[in-house]
Amino acid sequence: MKNKSIFLTTLFLTLFLISCSSDNGGSTPNQEPTAFTLIAVPNGTANVAVTPTFTWNAATDPEGDTITYNLIVDTNAAPTTVVASNLSNTSFNVVDRLPLAETLFWKVIAKDTNGSQTESETFSFTTRNLNIPTTPITANADFSARRSHTSVQFNNKIWVIAGNDGVNKNDVWSSSDGGNTWDEMTSAANFSPPYLHTSVVYDGKIWVFGAANGNTNFVWNSTDGINWTEVTSSPQFSARYGYSSVVFDNKMWLIGGTDDGDDYKNDVWSSTDGANWTEVTSAAPFRGRSDFGLVVFNNKIWVIGGYDDGSSRNDIWSSSNGSTWTETTVVGDIFSARSNHTTVTFDNKIWLFGGARGGERRNDVWNSSDGISWAPVVNSAPRFSGRNSHTTVIFDNKIWLIAGYDGSRKNDVWVFD
Known about the structure:
The structure is a single chain. With 417 residues, the protein is mainly beta. It has two domains: 90 residues, Immunoglobulins (Immunoglobulin-like, Sandwich); 267 residues, 6 Propeller (Neuraminidase). Helix content is 6%, strand content 46%. The strands form eight sheets. Strands 2, 4, 5, 7, 8 and 9 form a six-stranded mixed sheet that branches. The chain has a four-stranded antiparallel sheet with strand order 10-11-12-13, with no helix packed on it. β19 and β20 form a beta hairpin. It is elongated and about 85 Å long. It starts with a helix and ends with a strand. The relative contact order is 0.10. The N terminus is likely disordered.
């Protein structure tokens, strides 16, 4: 009987020690960080900056583990896009711009070193729209007042090339400070003063496609904007003006235009070297036209508006290969018919600025995130004068509008952020 009592006592102690070992050992479940709250950007806030600072209260860990945070922001009500990860601080300043005029959702996930995590609530906010300036960066740039020039962004500068200030020019100007001051790179480039030329940046060079006096084609390029090399004086496409050009699919493209205002063209050409051009199609399904918008967006080339033998247009066509084109069926509002407007891609949208129909010059701004639904950004606020034959270019994450014609030639520079 005594031996049995000793055995039971020993068994009880053993089980007790095993239990204590289990309670205090590594098999105890890890506890999640405590709940925490979001601070800024506050829920439901409108007109938020596109580079906001997000802040939240700190979470604590019951076991004293180190906590890091993931910031989640996107357009879904249940956001999943990680904007920043493994943050040790409870704030984050956005560097890469958020989209304009967009409702976004954000939350934070707190994680401990053992993999347990706690999610915050989800807040929503709406970012501001494009800032429309009421005054230009400069009302009188160093280059002469002009129209029908071209502008590109190249080597961290904005460039203005040629144009007409009463006579056709072949000067070249650049600005590295956002259009406040301009340097004349050359007063007379090697190419003849062009008539309604176009320019692109491709293969580390600025390219100018032009027609001297409207009837002699040429292609020139430059690596510095000062010294220019003639690529060809007789490209395969016929002499023309009022055409548009763009870089797409690692090629340069030239589309449409007119020869002396009679024959409005709808042919499409491409080249990888500027000397040899391939006619992708001799007759795209859109009407032949001049002075239209041409932009690359969503892996397609887009033809927007223009002028075709007596009438301005506001139709929209797109192509993923330059040979097959689809007309966009616009839903809702659409900008009025026009030509000599400008189009750019910015903030994952197509943007359209100004233009003219007959003697009516516009200073409206429109955009679209899909080419189908268009929205006016402004209609009647103080801003740049209604104009045509201006340029727009993307530089330093902003849109720059330069010079043009509002009844007189301009040399003002505007910035849209």
